[in-house]
UniProtKB/TrEMBL annotation:
Organism: Brassica napus (Rape)
Taxonomic superkingdom: Eukaryota
Transmembrane segments: 21-40
A Pfam family per the record: Abhydrolase_6
Domain AB hydrolase-1: from-to ranges: 81-348
Keywords: Membrane, Transmembrane, Transmembrane helix
Lineage: Eukaryota, Viridiplantae, Streptophyta, Embryophyta, Tracheophyta
Protein name, UniProt field: (rape) hypothetical protein
Length: 356
């Protein structure tokens, strides 16, 4: 009997021990999953109280901050909306700082620059898509009374947005210029081999950043804030992604990141990370299917690109242009990504008066 009791007691202890280990493993697993879940969850937008720029209110209640330059809207002959690039804001427009006052006065141009959703003082749009930004721009134009037609110029990721304007609001455009526009490597009409070769030209850490943004957008915040791997050069402003000409431009003109704090004031997720998820995500349309909005020659579309651009391989633009011959292509030998700072007048004159 004693032996039986001891045996039963030992078996009970073993069962209790197994049960305890199982509970511990379960608790640890839940804890790890909770930590993982928390680490991949983006923070809410940072709140700011002081608004330093004029803003218009959109139909859904959001606000877009903007600034103007040049002729008064009611007197302007040409009205243009500038769309800024990645990690930037309305204050960073080459077309504000480098356009000659004489040309501005001669052509009577009114330029509107605005903070894209989530940047600067424009409210974030948690439902932002390539489609929504085009209609935001249309609402901005209507809110400012720019009239039935206006032109758009976009730089880098802002240049990519021009495709959305051409697709969704072509009837509102008087002209369009894409300057060093970003290309989504996963647009369905781009040959897989070409996209793969172009992506391989990027630094490995940047390749991974773009793949995460495309294939696992829910990991974008974690990927760009973790400390296990090197942060993407796009976000760290690594000079290794600058061409020779770009480095000269930065050295000569003394560019700095004075506006970076303003651009990121609502947090990097709503500005930089969401930009990556939209720009390199799954699009509702393919730009290579876009139709010419100016078949009656009542406007024109231009694409400017440097053949030494290390942000956007020129091979992608060459293929796109080969399929869309109605886009007027200007390839600049020896130029990098920031060449527009050197030729703002030429870009504007070409768009508005046809001088190339």
């Amino acid at each position: 009997m004693e032996t039986d009791r001891e045996s039963m007691s030992g078996g009970g202890r073993r069962t209790h021990t197994k049960f305890s280990f199982g509970v511990v493993r379960l608790v640890l697993s839940v804890g790890v999953l909770a930590c993982v879940y928390q680490s991949v969850q983006p923070p809410p937008p940072k709140m700011f109280t002081a608004v330093t720029s004029p803003r218009i209110k959109l139909r859904d209640g959001r606000h877009l901050a903007y600034k103007e330059l040049g002729a008064p809207r009611e007197e302007a002959k040409f009205k243009m909306i500038y769309i800024h690039g990645f990690d930037s804001c309305m204050h960073d427009s080459f077309f504000f700082h480098n356009l000659s006052p004489a040309l501005l006065e001669e052509l009577k141009i009114c330029i509107v620059s605005f903070d894209r959703p989530g940047y600067g003082e424009s409210d974030p749009d948690p439902n932002r898509t390539p489609r929504s930004i085009a209609f935001d721009i249309e609402e901005l134009a209507d809110g400012l009374g720019l009239g039935p037609k206006f032109s758009v110029i976009g730089f880098s990721m802002g240049g990519q947005i021009i495709w959305s304007c051409l697709h969704y609001i072509p009837h509102r455009l008087g002209g369009a210029a894409m300057v060093a526009p970003v290309v989504n490597y996963w647009w369905r009409n781009l040959p897989a081999k070409l996209s793969k070769e172009a992506l391989s030209l990027m630094l490995p850490r940047d390749q991974w950043m773009l793949r995460v943004a495309h294939y696992a957008p829910w990991l974008t915040f974690w990927w760009n804030t973790q400390r296990w791997f090197s942060i993407a050069s796009y976000i760290s402003c690594d000079p290794n992604i600058l061409s020779f000409q770009d480095k000269e431009i930065f050295s000569r003109l003394g560019y700095n990141d004075l506006n970076q704090a303003y651009a990121r004031k609502q947090g990097e997720y709503e500005s930089l990370h969401r930009d990556l998820m939209i720009g390199y995500g799954h699009w509702e349309f393919d730009p290579l299917d876009v139709q010419n909005p100016f078949k009656n020659s009542n406007g024109s579309v231009h694409l400017w690109h440097g053949d030494e651009d290390m942000f956007v391989p020129v091979s992608l633009q060459r293929f796109i242009i080969s399929k869309l011959p109605w886009v007027r292509y200007h390839e600049l030998t020896g130029s990098g990504h920031f060449f527009p700072s050197l030729m703002v007048d030429e870009i504007v004159k070409t768009l508005f008066v046809g001088e190339d």
